[in-house]
């Protein structure tokens, strides 16, 4: 998927885990096929998993990132009304793999899909409950920082231009440019709120029509309070989005900023993962279709 992507085999993973986490010796270790774009996932027995970075970076920088993710995941785990992975420990490079990596607890269930529960009012209310609880967490003086989603919409103009150019033969770019011109001009959020920051289907665990778990929680932190609203367009049809919005008591401007963040995320998925990750490319298309459907 990436020019700087690393490869790790099951044999390497077994060697790393056995050497650094001896409590798991004798457990079955198997690589899972996922649509993830950041980590390879190795199941350790029935209760744990290793997350191994897929993209190369300086090992010291990777370690700092994992330490920050571990701290954020612990905070998320304490406040989330649904189960989430608890960090177990950070592994060191070894067995021919050049980067640190992470072990955490496992959450049973099925990974959500863009259409699987898109018409479910219960699922819409579950997601609203999740976001409400996250927003109640004390910011402790923190504000958004960094280049990712959750700050100013206009900071992403250069990235959006790259996506428009790359999408010329894939999407109705002229229409999407007009949509972005409107969304980018929205007024900013009144205040940040604590946010998961990546509520896409692959980060949500479901069972029997309900939300039962939340994954990839290492980005938990302050952001535009509209950022987690992206779940509405990634996961719900129009009627379910209405239930979701009413449960959150979101005004028009905040709702439209949520649409803007969903747009900023979705348009990059289509062209970037066109040949390497069809699940993510299809997510981008379905989200863009819902955004167009919601245009005033």
Major β-sheet profile: 5 strands, antiparallel
Class inferred from helices and paired strands: alpha+beta
Strand tally is 10
When the domains are counted, the total is 2
Which H/E pattern describes the elements? Answer: HEEEHEEEHHHEEEEHHHH
Task: List segments where confidence is low: pLDDT < 50 over at least 5 consecutive residues.
Answer: none
CATH C-level name of the largest domain: Alpha Beta
Give the spatial strand order of the biggest sheet. Answer: 1-2-3-5-4
Average pLDDT, all residues: 96
Q: Supply the CATH architecture of the largest domain.
A: Alpha-Beta Complex
CATH superfamily of the largest domain: Aminoglycoside phosphotransferase (APH), C-terminal lobe
Helix % is 40-55%
CATH fold description of the largest domain: Aminoglycoside 3'-phosphotransferase, Chain: A, domain 2
Percent range for β-strand residues: 15-25%
Radius of gyration: 19 Å
Q: Tell me the overall shape.
A: globular
CA distance, first residue to last residue: 35 Å
Distinct helical segment count:
9
């Amino acid at each position: 998927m990436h020019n700087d992507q690393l490869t790790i085999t099951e044999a390497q993973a077994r060697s790393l885990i056995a050497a650094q986490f001896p409590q798991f010796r004798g457990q079955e270790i198997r690589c899972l096929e996922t649509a993830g774009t950041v980590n390879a996932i190795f199941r350790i027995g029935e209760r744990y998993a290793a997350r191994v970075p897929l993209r190369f970076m300086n090992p010291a920088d990777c370690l700092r990132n994992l330490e920050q993710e571990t701290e954020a995941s612990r905070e998320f785990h304490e406040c989330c009304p649904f189960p989430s992975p608890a960090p177990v420990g950070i592994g060191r490079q070894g067995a021919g793999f050049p980067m640190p990596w992470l072990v955490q607890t496992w959450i049973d269930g099925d990974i959500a899909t863009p259409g699987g529960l898109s018409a479910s009012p219960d699922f819409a209310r579950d997601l609203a409950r999740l976001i409400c609880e996250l927003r109640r967490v004390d910011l402790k003086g923190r504000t958004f920082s960094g280049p990712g989603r959750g700050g100013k919409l206009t900071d992403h103009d250069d990235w959006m231009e790259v996506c428009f150019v790359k999408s010329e033969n894939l999407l109705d770019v002229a229409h999407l440019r007009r949509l972005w011109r409107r969304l980018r001009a929205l007024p900013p959020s009144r205040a940040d709120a604590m946010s998961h920051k990546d509520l896409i289907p692959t980060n949500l665990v479901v069972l029997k029509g309900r939300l039962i778990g939340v994954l990839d929680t290492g980005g938990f932190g302050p952001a535009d309070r509209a950022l987690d609203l992206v779940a509405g367009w990634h996961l719900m049809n129009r009627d379910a989005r209405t239930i979701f919005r009413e449960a959150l008591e979101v005004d028009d401007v905040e709702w439209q900023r949520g649409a803007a963040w969903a747009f900023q995320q979705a348009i990059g998925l289509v062209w970037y993962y066109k040949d390497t990750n069809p699940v993510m490319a299809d997510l981008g298309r379905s989200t863009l279709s819902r955004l167009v459907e919601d245009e005033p």
